[in-house]
Design goal:
Helices cover about 70% and strands about 5% of the residues. It is mainly alpha-helical.
Length: about 160
């Protein structure tokens, strides 16, 4: 099981390194650059990633506890828009600090997963079933997807 944990840790670390490299020298003008996502600017994608990571932590905790992660009437697009709006006034430094804090929480949660927990499965609010292991993968995949959009917006 330690191999699973280490592989996931590596994926999470790799995706975060890619994100930080993409925004390393970014200033306010670049942060305001439009992206292909939902009419969001680069800074909005950073806000989205910060909020989404917390949401994925909640999904993992629910799966670990054998609870339902599904909320009746949940609209992912509306949730994402509202979540980004909550962070819209945050400056770039605050968003990067939140991203770091949330990733530390994800890695702590990764460390807490027991050997029999990886395959616990249930509903993911994205509209599909997922496992604990799969949800950690989703965090990294989601981040990498948005890093591509950020890079495209900044070039």
């Amino acid at each position: 099981m330690d191999q699973r944990r280490e592989k996931l840790r590596q994926r999470l670390n790799d995706s975060r390194r890619e994100l930080l490299a993409a925004v390393e020298d970014m200033g306010p003008a670049e942060a305001a650059a439009p992206t292909a996502s939902a009419g969001w600017a680069v800074r909005d994608l950073l806000a989205h990633l910060a909020g989404a990571e917390l949401g994925h932590q909640q999904v993992i905790r629910a799966l670990l506890a054998g609870q339902r992660a599904q909320v009746d009437g949940f609209d992912l697009d509306a949730f994402n828009a509202a979540d980004v709006a909550l962070r819209r006034d945050a400056n770039l430094a605050a968003l990067l600090t939140e991203l770091a804090s949330n990733r530390a929480g994800t890695l702590a949660l990764l460390n807490a997963v027991g050997p029999d927990d990886w395959d616990r499965a249930g509903y993911h609010p994205g509209g599909f079933d997922a496992t604990v292991e799969g949800t950690f993968r989703i965090i990294a995949i989601h981040e990498k997807r948005h890093v591509k959009e950020i890079r495209a917006a900044l070039t």
